[in-house]
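Comment thread on ticket #2218

A.B. wrote:
> Attaching the input chain for the structure job we discussed in standup.
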Amino acid sequence: MPSKTTPQANRIRLLTGHIGREFQLHRLLPAVTAGLNNGVLVISVQISFAAMIFEGDLSVYVSKGIGLTLFGCFASGHS
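C.D. wrote:
> Ran it. Output below, let me know if you need it in another format.
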């Protein structure tokens, strides 16, 4: 006797099939590598900007400046 499948079960099956196709290693590895490289580059550039801005008399505040620039980058969504 054939079993009936519910519409919800069909949607779940379609979703898991779609996820399985999207997260294959040959597609996932380059995307993760690019994201990590971009993150390291953005963090190093923001720390450099803070060090340039907070120099001289403001050098005592460089640690706060780094935090502010990193938070500003995160809050504005820049990458």
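A.B. wrote:
> Thanks. Noting for the ticket: The two ends are 56 Å apart (CA to CA).
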